[in-house]
Design brief:
- The protein is mostly helical.
- 41% of the residues lie in helices and 6% in strands.
- A two-stranded antiparallel sheet has the order 1-2.
- The protein is globular and about 40 Å long.
């Protein structure tokens, strides 16, 4: 099962990221960089379950740069070309904690 960001959220107006998916993944990866604080008895921002598949999926995707200098997360199509499966667990994890970055219009 592929988890995809709805197309209306695909484009990002962010000056650093080529699309919203890349921005959300980068935000979560940034939080992981600060997990060493947890080892110093500081509260953890995020916790990973003991799940080797999730850990593998979170670390398998590559990053690239567009011709306009924006950061892009590797597409699932490109991952498949490298012989990797779709990162469904990682997408679910990232979208769970990155959902605040998307604004869904309120229905009246």
């Amino acid at each position: 099962m592929d988890i995809q960001i709805p197309s209306k959220f695909e484009q990002s107006l962010d000056e650093h990221y080529g699309n919203l998916g890349s921005k959300i993944w980068a935000y979560i990866m940034g939080l992981f960089e600060h997990m060493s604080n947890y080892m110093n008895n500081d509260p953890a921002v995020l916790r990973l379950p003991d799940d080797d598949v999730l850990t593998s999926q979170l670390t398998a995707r590559k990053w690239s740069m567009t011709s306009k200098g924006k950061i892009l997360l590797e597409s699932k199509k490109d991952m498949k070309k490298r012989g990797l499966k779709s990162p469904g667990r990682a997408d679910a994890y990232v979208l769970t904690f990155g959902k605040y970055l998307t604004e869904v219009p309120q229905c009246l």
